[in-house]
Amino acid sequence: MIWIGIAIVILTFYLIYKNYEARLILALSGIVMAAIGWLVEGSPVTVGTAVNAFVNQLVNGGLVPTITTVMGFGAVMTYTHCSDHLVNALVRPLTHVPAIVIPGTVLITWVLNIVLPSAAGVAAAVGVLLIPALITLRVNPVMAAAAVFLGTWGSTISPGLMFNPQIADIAYKAGEISAPDAMIVIFQEAGPAVCGAVVSAVVLAVICCILKEGVGTAHPALSPAGEVRHFRVNPVMALIPIVPLFLLVIASKQVGLLPTKTFSVPVCMLIGTGLGFIVGLFRRQDPGDISRQFCKGAGDGFNNIVILIAAASLFAAGMKSIGLTGAMIEAMKGSRSIAMISAVIGPFLMAVVCGSGNAAALAFNEAITPYAADFGMTIVQLGAVAQLAAGIGRTISPIAGGLIVLCGIAHVNPMLVVKRTTVPCLFALVVVTIGMYYI
């Protein structure tokens, strides 16, 4: 049964790699494994139990409100153009200080990806402004795309990323933390993640110097891009996208300036959405259209994220039914280092291969992370490492959605961009792993 389970898992991720619908593949694989485990081995985890795992995630009070409100808020920020003002406000200084152009681009994109947690979304929002500006400064177009792409794993410490609420929920159910608060997870992983981002930005800047692809090295641009310099930034609109994040930080237990229970992620996102409505009214935008944008964003969050999490839960239940989870846990119990390496390498490689680390990291967190104590680690520690590794791995995948967007803007080959982000990402992976495991 174990070998059958391994074969099904390999086939599952191969099909996801071949761009088959991930939610369907995960769900079907989970049902097949649950059926085999129940019919052949008499496993207590039946097909009905596996399906219930799917359903329970659809009504998960910790995950669903967080993800849907974050995505709805992001849609409102895009529709009201508040995100455009924030991007321009952060990007403009780069055009005046050539020495910090490449690392600055990476870090600005990284920070913006926390506020706007969609990698493809932030790539489009930042890329359409920064890449033409960098090319005007005679930065090689490939390096311009690489600098923006390297910053698209900042969402790993966003409260809107699916993994942080998921890890918090698992840790809360296990009694490891006192509340299913994603900010508890984020505060533990933020330090290593920031260090990894800075290191990766510096490494890319060094590569840029070695390859001589920085400011003034490329042929003069055929048409100058003055959008960044000529865009009139409204400071109020630029601040609105970061209001929810600011509220979450000062309401966290680590800071405690506001009551944590009152200022939850959904509440903070709805406050930000309300401010977006006010901006929209001043811009004479139809409030009904703004409402529809929020609902569409929330619906997309449920469709693209919540159901994926539910499918991963069904897949994990199938692994448990066929005995694969138990075998993996026993193998990891024999060596803490095996568990530590698996949490890093597995999601990282799957993200590189698939262009998205979601399926691998979600499945790992559902199946293995709850047993972190058996390996001498905490749930938050093990789960955070898995999702950070997945985010970094996606940033060297030639088929990642964000990369495709950026290459379309810069008119460059994706493989050339990936060649420049690989080494910085490997440095970031090492820094993040050391930070999470040993510091």
TrEMBL record:
<feature type="transmembrane region" description="Helical">
    <location>
        <begin position="94"/>
        <end position="112"/>
    </location>
</feature>
<dbReference type="Pfam" id="PF03606">
    <property type="entry name" value="DcuC"/>
</dbReference>
<feature type="transmembrane region" description="Helical">
    <location>
        <begin position="302"/>
        <end position="319"/>
    </location>
</feature>
<dbReference type="InterPro" id="IPR018385">
    <property type="entry name" value="C4_dicarb_anaerob_car-like"/>
</dbReference>
<keyword id="KW-1133">Transmembrane helix</keyword>
<feature type="transmembrane region" description="Helical">
    <location>
        <begin position="263"/>
        <end position="282"/>
    </location>
</feature>
<feature type="transmembrane region" description="Helical">
    <location>
        <begin position="118"/>
        <end position="135"/>
    </location>
</feature>
<feature type="transmembrane region" description="Helical">
    <location>
        <begin position="339"/>
        <end position="364"/>
    </location>
</feature>
<keyword id="KW-0812">Transmembrane</keyword>
<protein>
    <submittedName>
        <fullName>C4-dicarboxylate transporter DcuC</fullName>
    </submittedName>
</protein>
<feature type="transmembrane region" description="Helical">
    <location>
        <begin position="421"/>
        <end position="438"/>
    </location>
</feature>
<feature type="transmembrane region" description="Helical">
    <location>
        <begin position="60"/>
        <end position="82"/>
    </location>
</feature>
<keyword id="KW-0472">Membrane</keyword>
<feature type="transmembrane region" description="Helical">
    <location>
        <begin position="231"/>
        <end position="251"/>
    </location>
</feature>
<keyword id="KW-1003">Cell membrane</keyword>
<feature type="transmembrane region" description="Helical">
    <location>
        <begin position="190"/>
        <end position="211"/>
    </location>
</feature>
<comment type="similarity">
    <text>Belongs to the DcuC/DcuD transporter (TC 2.A.61) family.</text>
</comment>
<feature type="transmembrane region" description="Helical">
    <location>
        <begin position="142"/>
        <end position="163"/>
    </location>
</feature>
<keyword id="KW-0813">Transport</keyword>
<feature type="transmembrane region" description="Helical">
    <location>
        <begin position="396"/>
        <end position="414"/>
    </location>
</feature>
<feature type="transmembrane region" description="Helical">
    <location>
        <begin position="20"/>
        <end position="40"/>
    </location>
</feature>
<dbReference type="InterPro" id="IPR004669">
    <property type="entry name" value="C4_dicarb_anaerob_car"/>
</dbReference>
